[in-house]
Amino acid sequence: MAQKLTANRLIDGTVLYWRGGGWTESFAEGEILPTEEAAQAALAAAREDVARNLVVGVYLLELKGEAPLKEREIIRAFGPSIRPDLGKQARG
Amino acid sequence: MPLIKDGQLADDIYTAVDDAAPLPEGPVIVSLKRLRAEREALLGRNQKLGVKLTSEESPESIGSDLDRLSLVVLEFPKFRDGRPFSWARILRTRLKFEGEVRASGDFLYDQIAFLVRVGCDSFVLPPALTPELFQRALGEMSLVYQPAADGKKIIRDLRA
Amino acid sequence: MYRYDEFDATFVRERTEQFRYQVERRLKGELNEDQFKPFRLMNGLYLQLHAYMLRVAVPYGTLSAPQMRMLAHIARKYDRGYGHFTTRQNIQYNWPKLKDVPDILAELATVEMHAIQTSGNCIRNVTADHFAGAAAEEIEDPRPVAEIVRQWSSLHPEFTFLPRKFKVAVSGGPQDRAALRFHDLAIEIVKNDAGRVGYRILVGGGMGRTPYIGYVIGDFVEKPDLLSFLEAVLRVYNENGRRDNIYKARIKILAHALGESEMRERVLREFSEIKRSGTLQVPEAERARIAAYFAPPAFETLPDTVLPKDGALGQWVTSNVHKHRAPGYALATISLKPIGGVPGDISHEQLDGVAELMDDFGYEEIRASHEQNLVLPHVKQSDLPAVFARLQALGLATPNAGLISDIICCPGLDYCDLANARSIPIAQKLAERFADLDRQHNIGEFKLKISGCINACGHHHAGHIGILGVDKKGVEFYQLQLGGSAAEDASIGDIMGPGFGEHEIVDAVERVVDLYVKLRQPGERFLDTYRRIGMEPFKNIAYQEQLHAAH
Q1: Maximum Cα–Cα distance for chain A, whole Å?
Q2: Predicted TM-score (pTM) of this structure
């Protein structure tokens, strides 16, 4: 099952997604990890950024098509469902 | 690992000894289990004797032998196991122990000031802590609201 | 209300500097997350779903106008323009940056506020009856007791690494508006047969995975002995509480595993020894000194007036205004539950607006209740129309205090890392379904409480109707519990059965409520009818749609 990798930026808590050896704030731009090997490789690389005190709470999330599988990850990617004016969803 | 005693780096005169290992010369630290099993031999050695308590063992279980000990080591298996704080305080306030109370194991920078307050006077510094950090930790909070085992004047009494 | 002296101010300032230093070390990488997290939590800072979350302590829910202004300022400068009042009388910010938190704490310190011990395995914010000092049947104001406990518990060297969190509540009389029986430890001010005032101490209440109602561990503790007694309870807990399983680590588990008699014996043994040592006795002078801070304002001699019953003002008075001990005065609840709004949320404009109202009317203090509303404790009855008009302008005049749309609701999956389901949208839909005010008054007193996970921050176990959001194979379901109460008639709600889907739960609740209205006897609240007729009729009607669908 395809996955993406996420974390929080240490300094401000912003939700981040792994992309090409770095991080993006946009879920859509986050890199799709199509195989378990790719996912584990990304996880290992991302953990180096934990050790470098850039991010915390690194984990993989499953996809369903292009969107997150779990509702929690949908809300995390876009913002609180009851405040469409807050979070990443507000930036258009 | 470095030992801090009375606020300074110090040499450790004690040797910690496993339950099955033979006793070397000089002062030793043994488990409570070993103290009970080899009581006569240990107390008869005419050397300073220390006991290491696990976080589950209350110092009250040492019983009257506490008078014969110069050191009680309180082990932190994990920093969030806060039982040794009670053990230290009971050693000082209830059991009136006047020997060395030593904190050992996994404890954090933010626990140092509390450990001193409840009566620890020596510390086996875990890898993340340095003597400089230790000193700094002691000086961060100058005021306290509640009595512990250090006799420090509490805010209520400063107000009087 | 309590005012810091130089000692309290120094204490908070040093704590803020201590936190600043640790944040610097963390950002420089001298501390990893495992080493930093315990200290971060002890200063009220969580990492949640979208961002960090800072929980600011509001001791026994009491706030001044300058404090309200500062909370507004923090929301504007460091956050996204709003805060959230919780079921423990604290306020939460959902979007602070770690690097800003030392500055936030420094600014809070200038108005005698902090975020000390609002998380972590330590003694948390001491909560108290939000009608303190104003309720007619009160024996004594509970807040001096709460303040004494707050000071004693602040950075307590022996009890900062407990098996789990420890929550304390205080109440000043027989009516329990502080949910005492659901706290780890609770203090009820009582009078003995000789007419002397002392404390009844309860232990072992709690919500969460395994809800319990607390039992009495100290029938009558004399005032000077209070802290010695509390110290005894905490020591028994620290020594014996389970540390092998976080779901079994609260004192409620220990208190009920040991049983009342064994627990009492252990506590009494510690208590006698601690009391004998004398170090924790609370001198009368100290009690009086602290009590003086909570002296009520000098009430004018006023007659009781006939309160308005008509129009919008009349509706608001009927639900939101409560009897005061002094004639001519009233308690006024400011509902933070606008229909369709987020329960407990308040904007920076509203925080500032309330502060301005307080200054203009000369109100020194306001309270946050565990039901996520605000309370003005000493409003002259003659001022009620003017106060109401100001609240209307601020969008804070919803006339639903204590009614079914006055819903208690946790942040849920929209904000919280621990949640399994969203709670706020359900609260919004339920409030909208029951929006009609005549209908709400016909339904009467109602405690509807919603939690987004088993941690029960929405106190659903204590709801007349409680709703628990669960995740069933990736889909949100909502379980109903009936018959809970957080008052002196405390009870844990009974689980009805399988959960309802997101699009079914509002209808199910409506069927249950409509059945109550149909079956109740005169004077019965929902809670009373439920206690009389039991679960069966409500269960049948709730699931009736499923039954019809199956056929």
Answers
A1: 38
A2: 0.97
